[in-house]
């Protein structure tokens, strides 16, 4: 018996070449808020933190069934594609907590 499913999304954000670190922080903060508020995801900024034109986020969400998890990840991917900045969901994965043991 599974104890739920964990959906993981790796997200790349590309900003224009003239972006500053302040611009980057603002865009990533907006995305983090959206992922947390809309999808209940836990979100962390990963990768190189000092590059003003590129950012990476990893989001994780937990659902009771694999179907629910897959649906929420698809909705997350669609939402990310609608964002005004160049946001690309690079990887989606669903795992069970038991697979981590």
Question: Could you characterize the architecture of this molecule?
Answer:
It is a single chain. With 101 residues, the protein is of the alpha+beta class. Helices cover 35% and strands 35% of the residues. It is built from two helices and four strands. The protein has helices at 21-39, 66-81, and strands at 5-14, 42-46, 54-63, 86-95. It has a four-stranded antiparallel sheet with strand order 2-3-1-4, covered by helices on one side. A hairpin with a 7-residue loop joins strand 2 and strand 3 (54-63). The longest helix has 19 residues, at 21-39. It is elongated, with a radius of gyration of 14 Å.
Please give the largest β-sheet.
Answer: 4 strands, antiparallel
> How many H/I helices?
2
* Terminus-to-terminus distance: 14 Å
Task: Give Rg in angstroms.
Answer: 14 Å
Number of strands: 4
Structural class, by secondary structure, is alpha+beta
Using the alpha-carbon principal axes, give the shape.
elongated
Percentage of β-strand residues:
25-35%
Strands of the widest sheet, in order across it, are 2-3-1-4
The arrangement of helices and strands along the chain is: EHEEHE
Residue runs with pLDDT of under 50 for 5 or more positions: none
Indicate the mean pLDDT: 91
**How much helical structure, as a percent, in the residues?**
25-40%
């Amino acid at each position: 018996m599974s104890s739920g499913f964990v959906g993981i999304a790796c997200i790349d954000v590309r900003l224009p070449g003239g972006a500053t670190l302040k611009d980057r922080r603002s865009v990533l903060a907006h995305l983090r808020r959206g992922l947390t508020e809309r999808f209940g995801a836990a979100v962390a900024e990963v990768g190189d933190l000092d590059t003003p034109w590129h950012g990476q986020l990893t989001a994780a969400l937990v659902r009771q069934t694999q179907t629910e998890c897959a649906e929420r990840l698809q909705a997350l991917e669609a939402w990310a594609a609608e964002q005004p900045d160049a946001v690309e969901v690079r990887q989606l994965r669903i795992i069970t907590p038991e697979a981590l043991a």
